Amino acid sequence: xxxxxxxxxxxxxxxxxxxxxxxxxxxxxxxxxxxxxxxxxxxxxxxxxxxxxxxxxxxxxxxxxxxxxxxxxxxxxxxxxxxxxxxxxxxxxxxxxxxxxxxxxxxxxxxxxxxxxxxxxxxxxxxxxxxxxxxxxxxxxxxxxxxxxxxxxxxxxxxxxxxxxxxxxxxxxxxxxxxxxxxxxxxxxxxxxxxxxxxxxxxxxxxxxxxxxxxxxxxxxxxxxxxxxxxxxxxxxxxxxxxxxxxxxxxxxxxxxxxxxxxxxxxxxxxxxxxxxxxxxxxxxxxxxxxxxxxxxxxxxxxxxxxxxxxxxxxxxxxxxxxxxxxxxxxx
Length: 332
Hints:
Layout: H1 2-5, H2 21-36, H3 74-112, H4 137-140, H5 143-176, H6 181-212, H7 215-237, H8 247-252, H9 258-291, H10 296-308, H11 311-331
């Protein structure tokens, strides 16, 4: 019955879990070890890793020494200058070769693209003299000017044929009358002189005027072609001893030799046709010139621009200025 008298909710033995021998032993030993550990003492019961500190050795200090400057010798300087000049020369030669290559490529491209080559006068390929001008009335001249330009070109051709026939007529006259040698000699001169001069002085200017609507070329054509008209009239009249088979010379030869007189009359008729055609073409070109809007002020502007941009004129002006300056300096 005693077992039923005990209270089951009352522990007869006050059990302290921290009084357990195993727990007490562990806590006691750890406490003593922690108490005995002194981090600042050299001897400790705990085994701890020791760190060895190596003191830094100061770098040996040396006084700063200024190195003396060594100037290159004249031979070294001359060699360096010569090497620099050679390098510059090689660079210039390389650039020149590059420019030549590019220029050749441009020429090849232009030829491949159909650049216009000179085609007048039409000479055979075996001839050493090459054409000097490019002429294409159909391709370069506007349609409204092509007819007049062709007529002026035909007039120049007729002019050359007339001068050649004049030479033959004067030769025939010289064979019948030895005193007419002056006319024959002058007829040769007129053929050699007037044929190329007419092409250069009035046909090419009017060709350029029609091609580029140039006021300066129009005025140049009018100025020269007017004198050409006067020459045609003089040649058609036929003043004796002037080298022209005109009407006066042809009529005066009838009594001496009729055949020669007839030949000279034919030539006189050719000179007359040249004069008439010159008057007609001069009026036609003038009417076209007025429709193009050209003016004298525009011609002056074109002339000034052409002269100032001409390299020959620039070099001549520079030479003249330098010569004048040198002479003035020498006088002073």
